[in-house]
Amino acid sequence: MQPETVLKTWFGYDAFRPGQRDVVDTILSGRDCLAVLPTGAGKSLCFQIPALMQPGVTFVISPLISLMEDQVAHLQQKHIPAACLNSSMSKRTYNQTLQDVEAGVYKLMYLSPERLQNQWFIRFAQKNPPSFVVVDEAHCVSQWGHDFRPAYLQIPDFIKTLPKRPLYAAFTATATPCVRQDIITGLGMNDSAAIVRGFDRPNLFFSKKSVADKDRALLDALEKVKDRSGIVYCATHQNTEKVFRLLQRKGYAAARYHAGLTPGERNRTQADFICDRIKIVAATSAFGMGIDKENVSFVIHYNMPQSLEEYYQEAGRAGRNGEESYCLLLYSREDFAINEALARQQEKPERALALLASMWDYAQHEGCLRNYILRYFGEDVTGECGKCSYCKTKPFWQRFTNILRI
To answer: How far is CA 143 from the centre of its chain?
Structure first.
């Protein structure tokens, strides 16, 4: 069966998006693969299609329970046999899921990286080895990534315990050249192919503002995107609650999402947002990863994130349908001070401080915002984008001077 047949039969698409077929072909050739595809480029399809074309089960290593559950639910809606193992499951459900894996019921099994360190599970995997292992959100393996997770560094040890080395691929949406090399080395990938699709998202308009009154700036921004769907990211639970109450007072159909809420409320918020019962979610960075919602028209950061990777990944949740979308960063010196204090508390503060420095440099940058981001991720760019707050508001004489320089 050809990949196009699987694409049409299971997912209903007539053709691959740019870059997808290259990734699929590389995996099916048996070569280790690192795929760096921007948010909205359809990276999940790039491993789900090879998984359906292989005998046996595919293990998908993923960092968040909510992300696993979202992807499994999405696959089950398409009648694709998928499941996940996580710590919230009852012992009975957990054991039944493993029995179903042993019986060949599932094609995709989602797991946390910590699960692969469990000796009982390792023995199970040795008796029921996967034909394909996928590392999703692979930037978590890099100490220079924005979401370092030590358990990701143990994945190669798990691979070595298997009776036969499976197909092996890693995926992420944001990785600088340094992080890409860290991923390849940290995951023990052999003769790997790195497939990097351009980071540019031409339909996203980037803007930034340093303001004393963030509430006023937020409400002014929301006036421009009335009746549209979007996310307001906040750095803390406290700020999330504050923004949520502000939106409610002003009559917006809004909800909140952070780790301090019950799983039931978080699930309701997620479902209501996907089904357009609410328009805006005030959330911490815990929200959004893996959520398949194409009509997000704006992403506003009420606080400055700790890294440019985190910012671009979250901003990239806007405009997945290709429509023009708005990304606004509200920042302050207080944001920097808070993030700096948090960075100094980490085990390796120099890494966190370096990431924060790049984020702050972007916030202070007097030039094309899109070009700054693209250069950060290793792309060569010339000229100006014409679709960011700097390019749109710069005086004509300044634009003319730059044109003469090119």
So the answer is: 17
pLDDT tens track for 59-99: 999 988 878 988 999 899 999 999 999 888 899 999 999 99
pLDDT in tens, 232-258: 999 999 999 999 999 999 999 999 999
Q: What share of the chain is helix, strand, coil (3-state, %, to 5)?
A: 45, 15, 40
3-state DSSP call for residue 158? helix
CA 279, CA 168: separation in Å to the nearest integer?
A: 39
Whole-structure pTM value: 0.85
In the chain, CATH 3.40.50.300 sits at 3-196, 204-364
Banded pLDDT at 198 (limits 50, 70, 90): confident
Helix (H) or strand (E) holding 335: helix 333-344
Q: What are the C-alpha distances in Å from 239 to residues 111, 172, 282?
A: 31, 28, 9
Contact 225, 298 (CB under 8 A): yes
**Alpha carbons 10 and 12: distance in angstroms, whole number:** 6
- Reading the block at residue 154, the tokens are 């143990």
Fold for 204-364, please state it. Rossmann fold (3.40.50)
Contacts of 79 (CB under 8 A, 6+ apart): none
State the residue for tokens 């499994």. Answer: 72
Where helices occur in 35-151 by DSSP H, the ranges are 43-53, 65-77, 91-102, 119-127
CATH number, span 3-196: 3.40.50.300
